[in-house]
């Protein structure tokens, strides 16, 4: 069995599973945020109306709550939802609640790794499609709808059809100026936005071993954009070190067997990869950045769980250092702990010296919520994960997806720019 | 939830691929937390311009006013996991959606809200797009029919059961956990044997 099959077999008390088996898996961790949380509350309310008593959750210690989409409260309703979510956490005894403006807070997927909320070998579900992100730690991580999340919160388990696994092997270390974002955009361009529908995308090979934990998280994060059920990478020493730095050492790693089966193996040669951009209106609509070098932009957005981790900010700062932005540039670190580290490293100063705005951690404009949404016909280069029509604002705005290096280089010139071409 | 048996209706043809959940229900409505009333916001940015219905959008075409079946192209429901998308479609009155493929989370959300998502092949989908008359969907028999079309479709056995019996309720599906598992795997094994 491969790693995904072994985790799901273990979670369902079986010795062996194969793709397409339907299993009920025990869940180790579950997460809701300020959109899916109120969604779950709505499901609970409906159930209560039918006479069902909902007095306690399956295990409040395994559930955690974040506020990230519409915070700092974007308007009156968002503010009300935060109150609702806070009351929900209190009523059901959920202690791990990352409240914005109170200690550690930020985007749910970022907190999942930054705070070691999820550990290798676990089954983790969240009320958000990018829950896949956390699979980079060696966990089975998948997003669910509100009703399914409500079910998990009450029962601690959920059924899955065991997905088949596509294996993406990266040979060699990524060249300078090429990031994990370029690789995953290239892959999505190759297989399409439904290329991994109900499948697991696993990444491996010596190129992945060379890759940092944060870069790996970019890969698994965007498996969602290929329709994948989950993304996963086998844990190694880098993961152990990363988690140990965050106080987590007690877990049971799972690794695939030597004869593990994959439905298909794709190989990528790192030396052949280049900075890539996904054009509007789909993450699969990719081309090399150099081909778009005459595309004028209105703004650059460096944010989200995909593209505002500490290393993403470091990459952008490397480009922006000593230069001035030519278009509006917004930088929103993915968690306040990352903001603090960026401040301590002098990165925030670099952004400010370049003229960029540095804002609070939030999903913000990535999902078109607030903090820099796009007007009609506005064109943005963004380190985020999706560029469907209207994703970041007006349905006739345009978003180009790129790495933090490409976004920063483009911020300097005002048009799409391959960072290798920056003078 | 009302049990799903057969429905007969004109089909609303929405000729678009990769329709993501943000098109189905734009982000500004996610803040609303009631489970009903989302139908008025369905496809909001395509349906309205400055609050006025756009004449060129299919949902504003009176021919499809009481349609219960939505016809769309590949990868419908991709993007965000927001269940509001299924809530909006259901609240608007759609009971079935026909496409070649659906995004995984959206597909599951449909069943929780009494919507039958049907996967057909490209050829059948094209034929349905060309066809302007009513069709009948029979879930028990797993067929789509009218005078020009007669095709069958596959649906996972437990989802069929959930819809036929109107078991969208978590409280009810809970009781059926073990049954669902046994039933699904037995069906799967029997399929493997015959094929």
Describe this structure in words.
The complex is a heterodimer of chains A (423) and B (195). Chain A has helices spanning 3-11, 36-49, 76-91, 108-114, 146-155, 180-191, 206-210, 213-221, 237-245, 304-307, 310-320, 336-344, 347-354, 404-413; strands at 22-26, 29-32, 63-66, 96-98, 123-126, 140-143, 157-161, 164-171, 199-204, 230-233, 264-269, 276-278, 286-288, 299-303, 328-332, 357-358, 379-382, 398-401. Chain A is α/β, with parallel strands linked by helices. In chain A, the strands form 5 sheets. A 5-stranded parallel sheet of chain A has the order 4-3-2-5-6. In chain A, strand 3 (63-66), helix 3 and strand 4 (96-98) form a beta-alpha-beta unit. In chain A, helix 2 packs across helix 5 and helix 11 (310-320) runs parallel beside helix 14. The mean pLDDT of chain A is 97. Residues 191-195 of chain B have low confidence and may be disordered. Chain B has helices spanning 21-24, 44-47, 84-92, 104-112, 122-130, 157-164, 170-175, 177-194; strands at 6-9, 11-14, 48-49, 52-53, 69-72, 96-99, 116-119, 135-138, 143-145, 150-152. Chain B has 195 residues and is an alpha/beta fold. The chains are: A alpha/beta (423), B alpha/beta (195). At the A-B interface, strand 1, helix 2, helix 3 and helix 5 of A face helix 4, helix 7 and helix 8 of B.
What tags apply to this protein structure?
heterodimer, A: 423 residues, alpha/beta, Aconitase, domain 3, 2 domains, five-stranded parallel beta sheet, globular, B: 195 residues, Aconitase, domain 4, four-stranded antiparallel beta sheet, 17% strand, disordered C terminus
